Amino acid sequence: MATRAASAKDVKEFVFEWRGKDRNGKIVRGETRASGENQVQAQLRRQGILSTSIKKRRMRSGKRIKPRDIAIFTRQLATMMKAGVPLLQSFDIVGRGNPNPSVTKLLNDIRQDVETGTSLSGAFRKYPMHFSGLYCNLVEAGEAAGILEALLDRLASYMEKTEAIKSKIKSALMYPVAVLVVAFVVVSVIMIFVIPSFKEVFTSFGADLPAPTLIVISISEFFVQYWWLIFGAIGGSVYFFMQAWKRNEKMQKFMDRLMLKMPIFGALVDKAVVARWTRTLSTMFAAGVPLVEALDSVGGAAGNSVYQIATEKIQQDISTGTSLTVAMTEANVFPSMVLQMTAIGEESGALDHMLGKAADFYEAEVDEMVAGLSSLMEPIIIVVLGVLIGGIVISMYLPIFKLGQVV
Asked: Which residues contact 195 (CB under 8 A, 6 or more apart)?
């Protein structure tokens, strides 16, 4: 049996689009997954359909699979299984309706694994780039307890809320960065192309120029002469910094600590990490995963090495008999409200519920902070840009004003 399953799994299948006539002569069309055209024709004959056209669907190179795509897939799969649609048919429907060919191919591969006898969690574990340990553990717990539909629904809600928080944090951090980049480009264009024109005009005056004008002209001359060095240095620095952040563990830990200590934005990042930490532990604990095992996934899901290190310490303390509240208190990274909610949850036996309430609270805090930061950053950025561009313009027009006074 194992050999037969393995050989069946090795046969590569494709999606064929077919067209034909049924027993009543009516033209019908559809899609079939098979290893070749002969297999499609055999299937259609068994259904009483005379095929007139069979074409293999071309799979485009699709875009990269994002966590949001996995969250949407999880929600669709949970909805279909709750409606009583069989698992394999659910994969067919979701894969066929997805606009990203990369997602379609991934779901087809998973479907083939499940069809040959692999468990759903086992099939997901073959693609760790897209399905985290937390995801696979929850699916495995749902399969073992016979509540896969409920756990998929819970998992979809968890992923949707997590992705929403990530999106809000990125938008809050990217807005000022994007404006600063645009401001730098505008200033560079002014320095390289506009200021030299003014310089030629001022040279014909034959008079001494004001100090602000001389400073701006000197900066412009530096930009004109070394623009390639300026842009190269900035671009290279950003590239090497991002690569070091991705690949160097020490750099990642340093940046995670720095993000939490940043003025204004640090509090926002901290609340988002706490919300993700509590939401993850609540979801795992509610699924029946033992606390010590759940903490394996919680630390990585928090998205910050400071909390990941703290989670590892908490896990060690709990494995030696310490309560979760005491272990979290000794970690010295969690707000007092989270500690109080955890203590109440442990005493009342509703730890998952209380952690979920804490996650709701901090997610609402993140929403309010993002809205407040957006309102605060707009006038600040406008003032900064106004002072920067306005200062350059005034510096260039000072000699003209002086000339007008003389005349």
From this structure: 216, 217, 220, 392, 396
Q: In the 8-state DSSP scheme, what is residue 131?
A: S
Cβ count near 196 (within 10 Å):
14
Domain carrying residue 239: 165-407
| Assigned token pair, 317 | 């303390």
82 and 222 part of one domain: no
- The answer to whether residue 31 is domain-embedded is yes
The number of distinct structural domains making up the chain is: 3
**CATH number, position 317:** 1.20.81.30
3-state secondary structure 22-59: CCCCCEEEEEEEECCHHHHHHHHHHCCCEEEEEEECCC
DSSP string, 137-162: HHHHHHHHHT-HHHHHHHHHHHHHHH
- Beta-strand pair 14-21/50-56: antiparallel
The pLDDT tens digits of the residues spanning 187-232 come to 888 888 888 888 777 776 666 778 888 888 888 888 888 888 888 8
Query: CB–CB of 71/161 below 8 Å?
Result: no
Query: What does the block give as tokens for 335?
Result: 């707000």
Rounded Cα–Cα distance for residues 168 and 369 (Å): 10
Q: Could you tell me the pTM of the whole model?
A: 0.67
14-21: strand order across its sheet: 27-34, 14-21, 50-56
Nearest CA among 113, 120, 101 for reference residue 59: 101
Task: Give the three-class secondary structure for 21.
Answer: strand
Q: How far is CA 122 from CA 6, 16, 119, 147, 244, in A?
A: 15, 27, 5, 17, 33
Task: Indicate whether 321 belongs to any domain.
Answer: yes
The token duo for 218 is 């000197």
